[in-house]
Write a structure and sequence with these properties.
The structure holds three protein chains of three kinds. Chain A is an alpha/beta fold. Helix content of chain A is about 40%, strand content about 20%. Classes of the chains: A alpha/beta, B mainly alpha, C mainly alpha.
């Protein structure tokens, strides 16, 4: 009996290396860090991605929230983690292109990461109160030009989409931005709440933040910055239709990892995410949480971010928000 | 209702209704049982029931408790022992350490306010306001009666210091050792040091608590507690 | 009354076994999550959010909502027993609640907390049921200048809670304010008081400060005093007497009012609401000196206010899609995953869903009362466990709790540091509640003030043109003056 056992062991030991050099990544749970509080845009995107990956790969993919310092804390933590593919993070405009446009002393470098893929877009919708006399973007532009000081708009944070979306619009409309009344709120939700309450007159937040109030009838959407009209909001024209074709600020979320991530990890993720972008069930799920799915691979993603930074830097300086 | 003495393992049942006194009474003079030193009194007082305080009500006060023994307590202000005669006017007034600390914080705040690259009505506003308030309050400390330092005696203070040091050490060791090992060791040390359990019981309870926390927080809730020596 | 009909229908559906089961699960989980410091309903709901992939919307939302209001029941338990406020809003409960526990009266404290939570929560739900849409619109009308007024009101509480020494109390509040300023300023993006490190960039976490100041410092003081147990006198009766309950009834009703009205406002922190409710109760009481020493009304008021606030939070959420607290924001994303957009359209298109969820909240509150009251005896006995065993356990939960807020060891460091600070404050005669109040109110004040100035291009005239703001600021100042005068009279 012992000899049989020994023989079996020997056979197995010899056969094992041939049976497959290494199990494919991932072999244990993966952590995706979301540097923002649960329920927000980045968190929703992260959970979408994590849920899909966990289902496809059979390994747990956990979202870990590490809010703080407008996203810098969590991002820093992820960037300092071991580049073994088991700690990644949701890359968001607010910790990437927009942040570097606004702040000159971020504790990490813009290029100090491994971009994996762009996954979701969150288009900007310009909104006013439902009973506002302004019915089109042109009305708003005229009013702002006539009385810049009396033109109050809400921003949901300084390194956020709204800073740039509104600034770009005002610049395109020929309004002297420095003279307008800017009211900053700690997030998109309070900003839009203030708009609905009539404490400010205009806002340019993301779709996921604005949809609820628009559909509740408290806010009126004037234009959406997207090539096509958004599902669920068929009455809101695109920026191009509204007469402002040059507007292109958009919120986005993607996946990135610490610098020097192994190529095979990146490859696995890009394959998965590319597949997700074509999966109708995934697209439907995303639409329900007001996100548009796109896919950009690592190089295209990085290119995208660099172009954004080039666009936003002068805008930030002109707005006077660059520190 | 148990012994009325102050001796014992800390399982005190002393419940002495102190005579109600007016606000200016010196708590040190003549209160019943005041012959004992501050530490013993602290022990006795630690668990007593509420005192009836006869003072005006709008500020919840605990005049009777000499040493604050719970964080929520509004602490006793205690007047210093009154200078005995007209010649003794040199009693030190003012809470100098407090004044220094607060004014120092205020100064730091003001310096930072000036450094901040924003407008005075923007990010600088509140540092300015708070800094000014701190400096003024620090100055106001000089008019306060000095707190009689109710520092604990060596044994009591040593106990507290030991527990705090153990806590700091534990947190420092969390990352190198990992949550599970560090917690077991630390709990074991505390259970033994605080004298409540023998070795077997302490060991068992430490292991049980640490394991339970590990399972609930790391496994179920997915919190990234440091794995340390145990790997991923 | 159409609403009553809808509610009745919702109740019928909410009482089906499946929905009752999920309400129960949510309530129990919520209580647990509330008891544990650091982990709040926000994380609890976030962790269970993936379950929405497997469950139909109604039971899932019933469960998640139950976690939210269940957490308010649990938060008071740890606050009363071991002076660890499980929730931001339970800090005030700990003041009188823990004092009662130290006197061996944890039972009545816990019971009053549960009953007040039930009464206020249910009455709040009535408000939600009948008045949601108009209330939501009213809430929108409250803007930054009015929030400044609310902060002015809350500042008067600092004066009240300062104890014998106003200077010390105000100093504590100012220090709390300073701590709140540390970190990245969200409105302008500049760093403040970060001493060049990136750890401080995220600011000082409020819960960690409270854990240190209350729980850790309390343990240090207890160890120093060689306490035998939390309560060294034998436990008295486990439930309050009818007389005591009757005296708390007024407190519960007033707290419901305050909690509900203020809970409608998205920008008002729940912690501030419980302080305001406590202070109101103290001012109307005929024996205010008992507050802070173990007054049952001092537990009934904040607990009632918390639960009324929780119920009120659903008004802007369901009627407008605006979540007033982070936990409700996660709940909102849960709703969105099901494609349910909150707002008047939701009430129109999915009445069954909405009313079943609302009805199940009534059921949930009853369940929580039934769950918590019998446990009072069990919890209260914890106060007799030898301190040498309980204290390390308290410290362990403090460490894990501080870590769990942002998954960061730095927060644990904060808790430790403030444990030492709390001990020092106790020795030097500084009251801790004002520090907490300064810490909570400062972000609210700063936002409101800077936004108001932004609205009026830097001119303070914005306050003069808004009657509500003026009234609130005036009331706040009046209360401050009143408190100061009353101190003079001593």
């Amino acid at each position: 009996m012992w000899r049989t056992l020994l023989a079996t062991v020997l056979v197995l030991a010899l056969a094992a290396p041939g049976a497959g050099a290494q199990p494919p990544y991932p072999t244990r749970p993966v952590e995706i860090i979301v540097a923002f509080a649960p329920g927000g845009g980045a968190d929703v995107a992260g959970r979408l991605i994590a849920g899909y990956a966990a289902r496809k790969w059979g390994q747990p993919v956990n979202v870990v929230n590490m809010p703080g310092a407008s996203g810098i804390t969590g991002t820093l933590h992820a960037l300092r983690a071991r580049p073994d593919g088991y700690t990644l993070f949701v890359d968001v405009h607010a910790v990437s292109s927009m942040l570097f446009a606004v702040q000159s002393d971020v504790p990490y470098k813009f290029e100090e990461k491994t971009p994996i893929a762009l996954v979701t877009l969150d288009p900007v919708i310009y909104t006013v109160r439902h009973d506002s006399p302004w019915k089109t973007l042109a009305d708003v532009a005229a009013a702002a030009r006539a009385n810049p000081r009396g033109f109050r708009y809400a921003l949901g944070g300084i390194a956020a989409v709204a800073s740039f979306s509104v600034a770009q619009f005002l610049t395109a409309a020929g309004v002297p931005v420095a003279e307008t009344s800017r009211v900053v709120f700690p997030g998109g939700a309070p900003a839009l709440t203030a708009l609905a309450g009539g404490h400010v007159d205009f806002a340019g937040q993301q779709w996921s933040e604005s949809a609820a109030l628009i559909q509740a009838g408290k806010l009126r959407g004037l234009a959406v910055v997207h090539p096509t009209r958004l599902p669920g909001l068929p009455d809101i024209p695109t920026a191009r239709e509204a007469g402002f074709p040059g507007l292109d600020v958009v919120g986005w979320q993607g996946l990135s990892g610490p610098p020097n991530l192994p190529a095979h990890v990146v490859a696995r993720w890009t394959a998965l995410l590319e597949e997700a972008a074509r999966d109708p069930a995934f697209l439907e799920q995303a639409a329900k949480v007001n996100k548009v799915i796109v896919y950009k691979g690592p190089e295209a993603f990085w290119q995208f971010q660099q172009e954004e930074l080039k666009r936003y830097l002068p805008l930030a300086i002109k707005m006077g928000i660059r520190k | 209702m148990g012994s009325a003495g102050l001796a014992g393992r800390g399982d005190h049942r002393a419940r002495r209704p102190y005579p109600s006194r007016g606000p200016d009474a010196n708590p040190r003079a003549g209160a019943a049982g005041a012959a004992a030193g501050p530490a013993t009194l602290a022990r006795a007082k630690a668990l007593d029931g509420p005192r009836r305080s006869g003072v005006n009500s709008l500020a919840p006060v605990r005049l009777r408790r000499r040493t604050p023994s719970a964080v929520n307590d509004r602490p006793p202000p205690a007047e210093p022992a009154a200078p005995a005669g007209p010649g003794r006017r040199r009693a030190r007034r003012g809470d100098r350490p407090g004044a220094l600390v607060l004014a120092g914080l205020g100064a730091l705040a003001l310096v930072e306010a000036a450094r901040i690259p924003d407008t005075w009505l923007g990010a600088r506003l509140l540092p300015l306001v708070v800094g000014t308030a701190l400096v003024l309050l620090g100055a106001a400390h000089l008019t306060l009666p000095p707190t009689p330092s109710p520092w604990p005696d060596a044994r009591a203070g040593g106990r507290a210091a030991f527990v705090f040091a153990a806590l700091v050490l534990y947190v420092a060791l969390l990352t190198p050792l990992g949550f599970l090992p560090a917690t077991v060791l630390w709990l074991l040390a505390l259970f033994r040091a605080l004298g409540a359990l023998g070795w077997p019981a302490a060991g068992a309870l430490a292991l049980a608590l640490a394991l339970a926390s590990h399972v609930v927080f790391r496994r179920w809730l997915g919190m990234p507690l440091p794995p340390g020596l145990l790997g991923g | 009354m159409e609403t009553l009909g809808l509610l009745a229908e919702g109740l019928r559906l909410a009482l089906t076994p499946e929905h009752v089961l999920f309400a129960l699960i949510g309530s129990v989980l919520g209580t647990l999550v509330g008891v544990l410091p650091g982990i709040g309903p926000t994380s609890g709901i976030a962790i269970l959010l993936p379950l929405t992939a497997f469950l139909p919307p109604t039971p899932a939302i019933i469960m998640l909502a139950a976690i939210y209001y269940g957490a308010m029941y649990g938060g008071s338990t740890s606050a009363i027993l071991v002076n660890i406020p499980g929730e931001v809003a339970s800090v005030v409960t700990a003041l009188d609640g823990h004092a009662l526990a130290r006197q061996g009266r944890a039972g009545p404290a816990l019971a009053v907390a549960a009953i007040a939570s039930f009464v206020a929560g249910t009455l709040g739900l009535v408000g939600l049921t009948f008045f949601a849409p108009p209330l939501a619109d009213l809430a929108l009308a409250v803007g930054p200048p009015e929030y400044v007024g609310l902060v002015a009101l809350a500042l008067s509480v600092v004066v009240s809670l300062s104890g014998r020494s106003l200077v010390r109390g105000l100093s504590a509040a100012a220090v709390g304010a300073l701590i709140a300023l540390v970190g990245l300023d969200p409105m302008s993006g500049v760093r403040r008081f970060t001493l060049g490190t990136s750890t401080l960039l995220a600011g000082v976490d409020f819960i960690s400060v409270v854990i240190g100041l209350f729980a850790i410092a309390e343990v240090l003081l207890g160890v120093e005093a060689a306490r035998g147990a939390i309560a060294t006198t034998p436990l008295g009766r486990l439930l309050p007497s009818w007389g005591e309950l009757r005296r708390c009834a007024g407190a519960m009703l007033r707290a419901t009012g305050v909690g509900f009205v203020l809970g409608l406002l998205p920008g008002c922190t729940p912690g501030a609401i419980s302080f305001l409710s406590y202070d109101l109760e103290r001012r109307v009481s005929r024996t205010p000196e008992r507050f802070g020493q173990g007054a049952l009304e001092g537990v009934a008021a904040p607990e009632g206010a918390n639960n009324a606030t929780t119920s009120a939070g659903f008004v802007p959420l369901l009627a407008l899609g605006i979540p007033p607290t982070p936990a409700l924001a996660v709940l909102l994303s849960g709703l969105m995953i099901y494609g349910l957009q909150p707002g008047p359209l939701l009430f129109e298109k999915q009445p069954q869903f909405v009313w079943t969820v609302i009805a199940s909240m009534y059921v949930g509150n009853v369940m929580l009362l039934v769950l918590n009251l019998p446990l009072v005896g069990l919890w209260a006995r914890l106060c007799r466990v030898p301190y040498g065993v309980l204290a390390p356990a308290i410290l362990l939960s403090s460490v894990v709790g501080a870590f769990s807020v942002r998954n960061s060891l730095a927060d644990v460091g904060t808790a430790l540091a403030f444990g030492a600070v709390g001990w020092l404050m106790a020795k030097r005669g500084y009251p801790t509640p004002p520090l907490v109040l300064g810490l909570i109110l400062t972000p609210m004040l700063e936002n409101a003030l800077r936004q108001s100035l932004g609205m009026a291009a830097g001119s303070p005239r914005v306050f003069l043109t808004r009657p509500l703001a003026l009234t609130l600021i005036g009331a706040g100042l009046a209360l401050i003056v009143a408190s100061l005068l009353a101190r003079r009279r001593r």
